[in-house]
Input
Amino acid sequence: MKNYFYVFFISMVPLVELRGAVPIAQGIHAVNPDFNLVIAYILIAIGNMLPMPFIYFFARRVLEWGKDKKYIGKFFTFCLEKGEKGGQKLKSKAGRGLFVALMLFVGIPVPGTGAWTGTLAASILDMDFKSSILAVVLGVVLAGIIMSVISILGVAVFTGV
Output
């Protein structure tokens, strides 16, 4: 049970998210075949998506409040600028296809493009809540599939299977 909580909480960590939790789950399964990957993947997806409504509704406000504070200002400004930059980049490249662009932004597993950044970008761009959350959820599913395939191939190469 401890390992399920472990991957669940790892998937909630910004920047690590699902991209870090899936390979860890694969590694746990390689050592302990009783570790159910289907349950782990469901928990990882839930953990990765759980912060999204809070990020959408509150992160922008908190970051704007804290950007001029003495100790946290630089970090909050960095987060705001990253969200704005990601959002504007998506908007300029996507045009009318912003939904698909957001889904792909979240779904292609490279650093800094996960559910946290995608949801923050959607909030900064004032995208509709329902469509932005759906795009991020579909992106999380896509990232989960990609990371699962990469992890399975990596474990197979590492173990010689």
Q: What stands out?
A: Helices lie at 2-10, 17-31, 37-49, 52-66, 73-94, 98-107, 115-124, 129-159. The two ends are 27 Å apart (CA to CA). The chain has a mean pLDDT of 87. DSSP finds eight helices and no strands in the chain.
